[in-house]
Amino acid sequence: MTETAAARQSEMILSDQDRRGLYRAILGRRDVRGQFLPDAIADDVLARILVAAHYAPSVGFMQPWSFIIVRSPDQRARIKAAFDRANTEAALMFDGERAEKYRALKLEGILDAPINLCITCDRDRAGPVVLGRTHMPEMDLYSTVCAVENLWLAARAEGLGVGWVSIIQPEALRAILGLPEQVVPVAYLCLGKVSHFLAQPELQNSGWRQRLPLQDLVAFDAWQGAASTEDDALLAALRHAQDKAAMGEI
Ligand SMILES: Cc1cc2c(cc1C)N(C[C@H](O)[C@H](O)[C@H](O)COP(=O)(O)O)c1[nH]c(=O)[nH]c(=O)c1N2
């Protein structure tokens, strides 16, 4: 290995501090709806988090995403009206106490956040036959979701909150944003500085749903395959790691 290649290789190794920073961003990432501040986001910060999204993995290196930055108050008002229509329909799908609880939740920050961002998937970006998508046609959509998560984590590292709004008819999004037919609106996000990040998901705090024990979601060799004694140490490690994560530690 040449000296430059060796130096480059050592840059690829994350320091312990880097590693911890990554986990802190992952554990501290939140879906933000109610803590947005109206402050503008600096262009260089917005550029960095868009680059993070653009560096996501994608099937056949398809890079099917595009990013529509929605700043216009008129456009956001149209989106908010579409959310309100869908949210009224959604509330009717829950019964009794659950419906009441649903109606009390704040589920979007469309007008509160200074920027909204629609991340789309162009299903034709790389032609009809895509390496890796031949037998799983939804892989381009999954790739776009990888870009969403990259952006979400990068935003968290920059101290910005992101909230995903999916209570909206995709056809309404299409019409408002003028999307062509082959372009799917994958994620509609609200983005901005926040007063604070909550320690736990809002749905957990409100008693809507709790985080599941990770060890119940891990199986061996087949769907719901039972652990053998050789897996005991791993299961203990999972429990330990999740207990620490619940306290915000890694
Ligand atoms: C695909 C998808 C779609 C939505 C969400 C997430 C994802 C991944 N979430 C946020 C969701 O409620 C939240 O991620 C979980 O409650 C866990 O909380 P944290 O993200 O850890 O804060 C979300 N939240 C909300 O208030 N309105 C919404 O429409 C949606 N839609």
Automatic annotation (TrEMBL):
Domain spans labelled Nitroreductase: 26-193
Organism of this sequence: Magnetospirillum sulfuroxidans
PANTHER family recorded: IODOTYROSINE DEIODINASE 1, NADPH NITROREDUCTASE
MF terms (GO), sorted A to Z: 5,6-dimethylbenzimidazole synthase activity
Keywords, alphabetical: Flavoprotein, FMN, Oxidoreductase
EC number assigned by the record: 1.13.11.79
SUPFAM superfamilies in the record: FMN-dependent nitroreductase-like
Enzyme class: oxidoreductase
InterPro entries, sorted: BluB, Nitroreductase, Nitroreductase-like, Nitroreductase/BluB
Record protein name field: 5,6-dimethylbenzimidazole synthase
Listed Pfam families: Nitroreductase
Origin superkingdom: Bacteria
CDD domains reported in the protein's UniProt record: BluB
Gene3D superfamilies: NADH Oxidase
